[in-house]
Queue: 2 jobs
Job 1
Amino acid sequence: MRGEPMPDDAFIHIVRVDIDPEHEAAFNAWYEQKHFPDLLACPGWLSAKRFVTVGDGPKYAAMYEVAGRWAFETPEFLKVKGFGPFESLVKNFMRIQLRPMSGSA
């Protein structure tokens, strides 16, 4: 389990994806108006913010602060995880989970 957060440690969860241009407007509206509120209503999902890349890799990124690994196992999260109506349209999915190094401010 080297490098992974301990079960009760908070960490940052980042998801990066691409979507075809013809679906971007609907995807972005769904993400902001439906997906973020649904996730933030789940226990352990503390904050959420979206980004657009200025470099290489998938165009869109979402960064979440999660209270612990347990937040991925709640019934509430299991109902809203994934990309909903865009599941089959999302490409180049990437995920990274980061925890603070000791001593970081």
Job 2
Amino acid sequence: MSAVVTPLPSAEPRRLGLKVMVRALKVDASIGFYDHEHGRLQPLVVDVELDLGDAPVERLTDTLDYDGVARIVRELAAGPHIALIETFAERTAIACLADPRVLSVVVRVEKPGAIPDAAAAACEVAYSR
């Protein structure tokens, strides 16, 4: 005699989180520690990843404006000289956390051509609430 197996009821899917990203945003910034880097713009490539948690997203107002994230990066790049890409990344991250929906943020900044024979110098910073 074979046993009848009754399947367990399937649980409703549960979203674990939502991440919003702006990837490979190219900007020119007055950036660099060395004297020869002052007074000229240099290219940066910026990635921003924002964790919005598990809140439902039904309307545009439930999520972040990608253009707003890009605007943060562009305004920082257009501002006064910054010595380090680490500082650029941290300022970007802190500005993104001004939005209370953002639970955590990861910012990666690449400086192409900064090192001979390397694609880029880069840093990554992460913050959370």
